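#struct-queue
[09:14] JT: dropping the first one here, sequence first, then the structure tokens:
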Amino acid sequence: MKDDRGELDLTKQIEQLELENSKLKKRAQEAEGEMTIVKGIGMNSPEMRACQVRVKELNDSLAIALDINDNFQRQSVAMRKRTEEVEEDNKRLSQQISDYIKKYEDSFRKAGL
């Protein structure tokens, strides 16, 4: 039977859209099925397991590095504090020496020093 309806016939357009819609639904279902298979295989594949092992190794390395950094930061603060104490001691010692030299300057000159 020949379809003599024109392109502007709404019933013909509806039938074409319904046919296209059913094809798209079928493709979507097939794609969902394939996606389910890929996800199932992907999570259990040797490559994925190797990647998971590598991620764990990297996380462990990161934890070690963060611990080392934390220890370094604490030691750095302690060293800065100690350096400041030594600098203050040096200033006081320098002042004491300067005061001592001024106090005995005349006697040093007489002694030829």
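[09:21] JT: and here's the second one, same format:
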Amino acid sequence: MALFRKSKGFTLIEILVALVILSISLLALAGLMVSTTRNNSTGGHLTEAATFAQDTFERLRVSPLSSIPTGVMIQNSCVGSTGIVYTGSWTAVPNSGSTLDTINITVNWVDPARLQPHSIKMKTVVSQ
């Protein structure tokens, strides 16, 4: 009758099954961390590109409208805090019969981790 006594612990099989389940869940979390880090990096690059475009907008907004060349694509570049080179180009398009110009800015960069080109386009209107 001693064999039918209830055990108060876990068997080796139960512990091994629990370890397998724990290992699978930890591997899934590791994959999630990789994608989260990659997305965070991409977001940082996008923020730097948008800041570069916004700086260009602000420089053009304080300039007199007559000094902004229209119909010409002008390019410039800058290096971000992570060492990525952002190349920006902008074009001013005059609105007929108006004192407003539309400025289109495109910022391009290459993601060093994936070697994929990215770009962001922004548009604003400036007045005299």
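[09:30] RK: nice, looked through the second one.
[09:31] RK: Strands lie at 74-79, 85-94, 100-111, 116-127.
[09:31] JT: good to know. The chain has one helix and four strands.
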